Amino acid sequence: MTSTHRTVNRIVRILESVARSGATAVSLATLARELEAPKSSVYGFVRGLCAEGYLDEVHDGYVLGTGVAHVLGPAENSVVLLIEDVLEEISARTGETVTVAVRVASSVVYVHSLPADYEVCYVPQLKVRRPLLPTSSGKLFFALQPKPGDEELLAGFEPDQRSNLQAELPGIRSSGTALNRGETVPDVAATAVGVFVDSVLTAAITIAGPITRTEPHLQHYGDIARELLNGAGFGQP
User: Fold this and answer.
1) Is there a single domain that holds both residue 99 and residue 190?
2) What are the record keywords, sorted (predicted)?
3) Domain tally for the chain?
4) Are 55 and 63 in contact (CB under 8 A)?
5) CA 127 to CA 8: how far, in whole Å?
6) Is 1 within the bounds of a domain?
7) Are residue 133 and residue 156 in the same domain, yes or no?
8) pTM over 0.70
9) Which end of the chain is more exposed for a tag (fewer CB within 10 A), N or C?
């Protein structure tokens, strides 16, 4: 499994923190606190990122610079924009919270979400790394597109999480749907299906809501999402 490089880790965490803030600047003190590192050390990284155009310094902190957009490429390549019509239709047909998740190394990150029709609903936090398990999207990534080092990664999870995943893997692979029944948030249930671009699992779409309302319909919601993805050319090969 790829080892962690301290410098790279800190640079990535700085960029992720500033990205989460949106248009709100992040102060040096906040970055130092999140990284649990001295201000002098963090300031060195920040100065370098500003010099390369990845951050811009404003009066009360730092925001993302134009270099980030240059490296990431045009927005038209975003998987979210590719499937936005599908997302809208899933939202309309299920009424629950619809979220796009991507795998980032050993984590899953929610990058986009459409709100539910209900006042009582699941509201995910976006652009935050979270463990792959026991999320429905994480299960899907493990099942449909395993990566080198996944066995070592799984060894770091609780024994019951590993055993539950092993029991669910055959069903996920045959149905193309992964479920979460209150495992991450006790009162929330979710189903996840894969988004395939050029036959590669690029993202997962999750449909989630209060467990008492959604659990009886999880498989149906998954079927709706897979049908729409297949029709749009983003279904499982």
Assistant:
1) yes
2) DNA-binding, Transcription, Transcription regulation
3) 2
4) yes
5) 18
6) no
7) yes
8) yes
9) C
Asked if 189 and 218 touch (Cβ cutoff 8 Å), the reply is: yes
pLDDT of residue 75: 47
Angle, alpha carbons 228-233-234 (nearest 5°): 75
- Tell me the C-alpha distance between 63 and 51, whole Å: 13
CA-CA distance, 200 to 111, in Å (whole number)? 18
Whole-angstrom distance, CA of residue 33 vs CA of residue 184: 26
What pLDDT is stored for residue 4 in this prediction? 58
Which of 72, 91, 124 is the last residue before a domain boundary?
72
Q: Which domain holds residue 36?
A: 6-72
**21, 40, 72 - which closes a domain:** 72
* pLDDT score at 65: 83
- Averaged over successive runs of 10 residues, the pLDDT of the chain (237 residues) comes to 70 91 90 92 92 86 78 60 95 97 86 94 90 97 92 94 96 97 96 94 96 97 97 95
How far apart, in whole angstroms, are the C-alpha atoms of residue 93 and residue 102?
23
Coil vs helix vs strand at 114: strand
Residues 24, 130: one domain? no
Claim to verify: residue 80 and residue 179 sit in the same structural domain: yes
Beta bridge partners of 101: 110, 204
Residue-level pLDDT at 72: 60
Residue 132: per-residue pLDDT: 96
Same domain? For 41 and 84 the reply is: no
